[in-house]
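Hey, quick one: can you model this chain's 3D structure?
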Amino acid sequence: MSPVVAPEIRAIPERVVLTVTRRGMIDGTFMVAANQAFTALMQHLGRHGLMDAITGCLAICADDPSRVAPQDCRYIAGPILSRGMEDAVEGEFERTVVPAGRWAVFTHRGSYQGLGPAWHQIYSQWLPASGERHAGTAPVEVYLNAPDQVPEDQLLTEIQIPLL
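Sure thing. Here's the predicted structure for all 164 residues.
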């Protein structure tokens, strides 16, 4: 496995997203939970006529799998909407704020199956050697394209780590 490439350090503004949570990490990935969460979100947005309001998608990776049992790890999926969020907040669908701040941004190219090893390298190699300190809030994955848009080897995902 190749070493993690140095990230881009960015000041990222606050992001407000409509979220739904699913639980469960299997074999080091959230593939099942992610599919369940985004399926529920897309159905919900479709019922509210908001599919055309999606400007991006992200996931909040709220739990450290070394501290939380894999089956209990939360995957919090959220489309970023240009309009209509207030109408879609109901039941399990919540308004969630990803705070503004300084973030280390790593770009992963390829299958979502490769995200687990990338996360591991970031936290086990890059962060300890970087001199940076984690801000203590949840890291985020931002999906720059989707499997229905590009071949699997061309998927682009940003892993964003909050820094002090």
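One thing worth noting: The beta strands are 8-12, 15-23, 54-61, 74-81, 94-98, 101-109, 140-143, 156-163.
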